[in-house]
């Protein structure tokens, strides 16, 4: 492969700081949301996205010019960026919001990412995102970002093979293979890979990698929520089940519960 024929790819990976997946979620006393005074870490699906970006570079070698991670969150989100840098990303952007600010909604995040992508002097060829965040489980940001940019997208991808010379990406979506053109920076991926652990030497190196700090005001973005949360409560505790001797008894129990034979 001749170097002149290779398109050097700039990969963009949005990540999110979320309540750690191992923490038992509890509603806060005010019932305005969940208790956030617990351990946080990188959203696990975003870890998968960072891992895939690093794997693409390992496969393509010098064809990948840079991997840049970005997060939108309070000052503590800088720790999440450093984790991604230790995994192999080259640089990071932190769009910092106040600790007391409400969590940005998917559309606000998508608009912020679009603004960041459009200001990258060297351009962005591929955006790799986790399929969803485990806190709100919305799974909307990637699709909204693709719509705002007018880019193509491949969701729930289990495998991707990027050919920078031919400027295409061969994506396996569950059991379907789809060819995407990346000549106009037009792919958004979501993956299922086992992320690597950051080694101690890489953690130390990550401290020296550049992290650009920006505000929503600098980007001209308003993250004011469009939705209002009225009240958050825990679901009712499950009641133990019972046993029946036969189908007739089951139907009788269903009838007592107000469930007709048609629905049963």
Quick summary:
The chain has one domain (about 5-220): HUPs (Rossmann fold, 3-Layer(aba) Sandwich), CATH 3.40.50.620. It is built from seven helices and eleven strands. The protein has helices at about 45-60, 75-85, 105-120, 140-150, 200-205, 215-220, 245-255; strands at about 10-15, 15-20, 40, 65-75, 90-95, 125-130, 155-165, 170-175, 175-180, 185-190, 210-215.
In CATH terms, the superfamily is HUPs
Weakly predicted, low-confidence segments: none
Give the second-level CATH assignment, the architecture: 3-Layer(aba) Sandwich
Beta strand count: 11
Which structural class is indicated by helix and strand composition? Answer: alpha/beta
Q: How many structural domains?
A: 1
Shape: globular
Rg over C-alpha atoms, rounded to the nearest angstrom: 22 Å
